[in-house]
Write a structure and sequence with these properties.
Helix content of chain A: 40-55%
Number of domains of chain A: 2
Radius of gyration of chain A: 21 Å
Largest sheet of chain A: 7 strands, mixed
GO molecular function (chains A, B): transaminase activity
Distance between the termini of chain A: 42 Å
Strand order of the largest sheet of chain A: 2-8-7-6-5-3-4
CATH topology of the largest domain in chain A: Aspartate Aminotransferase, domain 2
Oligomer: homodimer
Order of helices and strands of chain A: HEHHEHEHEHEHEHEEHHHEHHEEEHH
CATH superfamily of the largest domain in chain A: Type I PLP-dependent aspartate aminotransferase-like (Major domain)
CATH class of the largest domain in chain A: Alpha Beta
Strand content of chain A: 5-15%
Keywords (chains A, B): Aminotransferase, Pyridoxal phosphate, Transferase
Pfam family, one (chains A, B): Aminotran_1_2
EC number (chains A, B): 2.6.1.-
Family (chains A, B): Belongs to the class-I pyridoxal-phosphate-dependent aminotransferase family.
Shape of chain A: globular
Structural class of chain A: alpha/beta
């Protein structure tokens, strides 16, 4: 049995924390965390939920399931409480789905670091499908048909597609027409769609159209989300899943509940109290979500402008807090620095320029590609005061600590471009 | 793929809750939960930990790992913080161990409902080995040698043994000489011992000798524990694991951390704050643990007396909060009631006598055996006031709500014995 590795984004985060603690100056864009404080009413709910020390139902209490159902209903997805299961993060739910649904998995290439390893843990094969030019987070529909044909010809059995919109690592949102094209392939090829919508509540422009595949092919779409990204609660571990209405969805929900009962029992009771409040979306939570999304959009755009000015190609970010530039246009000059692929680019950036990013190869991208993910949500400041100031600022780019970090980044990429 | 079931203890708990809500009078002994309130300083720690919303290290923060190391050191197991990993319950840790260590699994028969399904989820075979006459939670050493020989002859590869002491479902503690005998087999046959010590801090007699296999064969023993049972925090989901010192232990720790990073990321930050406090064992926590253990012992003994008086054979409970009687002596008279196996006994008890228990078959025991587990920790009352009174009472058996429930149980078993 080969030695297993820690998920590369978590590993990089630990490395940077160590080097910063040793006094090194590093701009950390390497970790997919929203570095913002806890919205105080959420902390109040956690404290108020301490009495919930009984195990409770595996799928979650009635109250939290009803709140999550309402959340989906307000997004054009009519939902009953019994279609919902809560869990300690969306990660275990995604694994459970892999465990209970038969067949192999199709993944956008690049995609979030964990989908592939989870497929392996569940005894499945994962097939990467290149993303289209318009956006990340979805396989290119034509390439997906091609991959399915080729996989079947080799005796494999692709039956699940994972979509992420807005996307990690590209920070883009799939346009409705692409979602419809994917859904058409799913219908033709009898695929289950797992729609990871954990960045859905971080649109940079609230007016941007959003289409969930669950609106198009509800009977074959599972939606997964959580509070880690939108409410900066990664360390609290709150995830939810919505199953389709009807016997197929019920069966899959029961199967996931069964796996849950053997792996994690239930979401911690006090966290269920938090989730019930957050997913009911009172006005103050909505206002906080809007302010967070505005900040994420502003800073992502600033980093996008810097990398494009340095000569990279890049899809403009539209949701979440990532930028995913491609330095292919600079391949020749970068080669003179010893930078010839994603890994050497990542190494050069952290060691020569003090910028921590995660190379595309960690997201399943072509190892030779000069692409990486910059998590711009790490720029809001290392103190709670700085983070609150960023959230409240009319123009967060003018705050000294953010302006300084952006200047560091600009200097770094200008130097990189100069060769 | 066959339809999966929810873990039977959680399923029974949900059934009883529904029927009680409908107004039925049921004495609920069917669920392995310590029905006690949260010790208030733990709630304070959770509230104080709300600021911990960053992901943090997969294995847990330095503070909580150091506290857990101290906990083990005080129990004769010198431990460094780097040997410790925390998680949302001991359940995911046990699964991860199954996933990273090769080979099949040997389980005491009967044992906790989840070990077997977890082995299956990890793609392993589980072999039940009968428990010795002295106690549950450990395979009979001679029977274990026999099972290993037979399994290998069939081409299987048993390499892991799971021990539970004090035990679920029998409520007994393995005597040191049996632990030594198991360790000798493990040495001879090169087995990994997974010692589930989640009931360790609930000894009915604090002077009772306790030997962890980690004291005998430290290099091949992994210890798993948590706060769900001792501090009645099942719904908070806090578990820990201790790996052996040295390269073998480090490798397994890294492998488990890798699996953790793909399944659950980390224990929620506020829960780590709770764990750091609880595992540091300040005097007030120790006093609360002692009071809890005394209550558990008193009530388990009372139920033991009732079932033995009704004609059952039963190992005297010595730790945790379970009693596991065997009604074999009443087989003939029970047959006249239509009770011929564990399932029909469980059904008769809940439907005719209003007593909810979990039949031995759910713990992997012989389906024909007239055995069940009674979780006596469910008797402390359904209100917080009643539970606090139970904890503080000089003689909890004299409290009206406990005396009444015991009277119901006594009436039920007297009726059962009368046939």
């Amino acid at each position: 049995m080969g030695r297993r590795k820690v998920s590369p984004n978590l590993a990089l985060d630990q490395l940077v924390a160590r080097r910063q603690a040793e006094g090194e100056r590093i701009v950390h864009l390497g970790f997919g965390e929203s570095r913002l404080p806890v919205f105080p009413p959420l902390a109040d709910r956690l404290a108020a939920g301490t009495d919930r020390n009984a195990y409770g139902p595996v799928v979650g209490d009635a109250g939290v399931r009803a709140a999550v159902a309402g959340y989906f209903a307000r997004r054009g997805l009519p939902t009953e409480a019994h279609q919902v299961v809560v869990a300690p993060g969306s990660k275990p739910l995604l694994l459970a789905l892999d465990m209970v649904h038969p067949g192999d998995v199709l993944l956008p290439q690049p995609c979030w670091v964990t989908y592939g390893p989870q497929a392996t843990l569940a005894g499945k094969r994962a097939f990467g499908v290149p993303i289209p030019p318009e956006c990340g987070g979805v396989p290119d529909p034509d390439a997906m048909r091609e991959t399915i044909r080729a996989a079947r010809a080799l005796g494999h059995d692709p039956r699940i597609v994972v979509l992420t919109s807005p996307d990690n690592p590209t920070g883009t949102t799939a346009p409705p027409e692409i979602i419809r094209a994917i859904c058409a392939v799913a219908e033709d090829e009898d695929l289950l769609l797992v729609s990871d919508e954990i960045y859905r509540d971080i649109p940079h422009d609230p007016a941007m159209p959003y289409l969930s595949p669950a609106e198009v092919v509800p009977h074959r779409t599972i939606v997964v989300t959580g509070l880690s990204k939108s409410l900066a609660l990664g360390g609290w571990r709150i995830g939810v899943v919505r199953f389709p209405e009807g016997p197929g969805g019920e069966r899959m929900r029961d199967d996931v509940a069964s796996v849950a009962s053997e792996i994690w029992s239930t979401l911690a009771g006090p966290m269920q109290a938090v989730a019930e409040y957050a997913f009911s979306e009172p006005p103050e939570v909505c206002a906080h979500l809007r302010a967070s999304a505005r900040l994420h959009g502003t800073v992502a755009k600033a980093v996008y402008d810097i990398v494009v000015a340095a000569g990279a190609q890049c899809r403009p970010p539209t949701g979440g807090f990532y930028v995913y530039p491609d330095f292919a246009p600079l391949r020749e000059s970068l080669a003179r620095l010893g930078v010839t692929d994603g890994e050497s680019l990542q190494r050069h950036l952290i060691e020569e320029l003090g910028i921590a990013v995660l190379a595309g190869v960690h997201f399943g991208d072509d190892p030779r590609a000069l692409r990486f993910r910059a998590a711009t949500s790490m720029l809001y400041g290392r103190t709670r005061g700085g983070q609150w100031a960023a959230l409240r600022a009319e123009d967060p780019l003018k705050l000294p600590h953010i302006a300084e970090a952006l200047a560091d980044i600009e200097r770094g990429f200008t130097k990189l471009a100069a060769g």
